[in-house]
Sec1-like protein
Amino acid sequence: MVLTSALRDYITRMLQDISGMKVLILDSQTVSIVSVVYSQSELLQKEVFLVELVDSKSKESMSHLKAVYFLRPTSENIQHLRRQIANPRFGEYHLFFSNIMKDTQIHILADSDEQEVVQQVQEFYADFCAIDPYHFTLNFPLNHIYMLPAVVDPSSLQNFCDRVIDGIAAVFLALKRRPVIRYQRTSDIAKRIAQEAAKLMYERESGLFDFRRTEISPLLLVVDRRDDPVTPLLNQWTYQAMVHELIGIQDNKVDFRNIGKAPKDQQEVVLSSEQDAFFKANMYENFGDLGMNIKRMVDDFQQIAKSNQNIQTIEDMAKFVDNYPEYRKKHGNVSKHVTMVTELSKIVEERKLMLVSQTEQELACNGGQVAAFEAVMNLLNNESVSDVDRLRLVMLYALRYEKESPVQLMQLCNKLASRSAKYKSGLVQFLIKQAGVDKRTGDLYGNRDLLNIARNMARGIKGVENVYTQHQPLLFQTMESITKGRLRDVDYPFIGNHFQQGRPQDVVIFIVGGTTYEEARALALQNATNSGTRFILGGSVVLNSKRFLKDLEEAQRIVKSSANAV
């Protein structure tokens, strides 16, 4: 059972058992949850003729419609519902909540339903956004909270932890499993989330999680983004990751409005492996191969278009009309991918990313401090390198050589400050405080562990087939350790007295602070090897370097202002 089909099943069950014309009422979070797995035309087939937000000010009475509410069980949503049920606009009310409700919430709704319009109240555990079959996100808006010390803003931190635990709980309820739980020892927030998740699953709601036992329990591993700050800082060269890095993907949609030449009907396009066969086949391909495959797709399409121009008889015309919807769809898909790749090429050229990225990859994968310092300094002096690329290069240098060459790191920071007007001073140092070598558990550069040193040497001898995609996220090593039963208890302790005998078949790795599409790709490729362990990746958001830097700046601002307030 994969995440996308679990969510689709839930939504189908909500809609198909209620006959007649319906209005679907969602909140700002469930809109995303539904939109990534259900298209508008599919909603229409289920007789959903209107979609509204729960906080919309609509007053119009539509008693001919049945209202299907799908909401997160938050106190705001319960208050909206209470008012709406007390003055009903619709003929019937069917209430579905995306997570476990409190008894008090059910009582509030029951007391408000004086006109007895509520037909049913149910919990459907779809409290996460499944962007790919094995990758989910919680779209948490204030994602920077995870970087703050607990004392700075305890209530926001509690909200963050609560939302993460709700999301993780829903994933396991949807998969009908109860996991053993491990966490990254060096992260306070990973430990807190792991402990609270265990309390929920084994104490407060143990009955709900009491599924048929499997021989080996699944594993939930909670890790911290700051253990691998390199991956979200790198430029990407495989299709899905590259689109998110250079243009941006939100809920599997790409906004073309800021791009000059997008056709009118393609202001916003869907990039979903579930709905687009070309994307599914190419989402993990590198940019060079992608270009070839797009050319092939365009050639195939031109063949179809040619045969369509050759209409001579009435039969030909009838055939063309029959095939026209398919032709339109193909045409839309071809032009979508061509527009996308054209835009990516333009950005790569404008920002000189081939040049920048080569140095980034060297900083991430290969030692050699002297050469690295020179390469970064040259790029800082290069007029055509953008401010944000300069910042990322210095950060990547700092993460690698903070201990080895502090003096040269200061030189680079000073150079950066003099070249980039927008640079907020101290951001590189703040990153080191947050995610420097003293804070990390994993062997990020493969230079702590003998096995990794040997592996890196072997890789150096063999050479890499593509200099732009040689980096492997830390997650890759973590998955390898799990499949081989080598994940160390001292670094990733278990919660409670649960231990794992043997290798787990299902593993959910949750990254507090957000995932990247590069990690999702590594995980999908790992799952394709059929190692006997199936991995699922989740996080508070899906990062690109822009979002990672924004979170870093926001956290730095709050830490500074709270220090000044003391």
Summary: Residues 314-350 form the longest helix (37 residues). The CA atoms of residues 256 and 266 lie 7 Å apart.
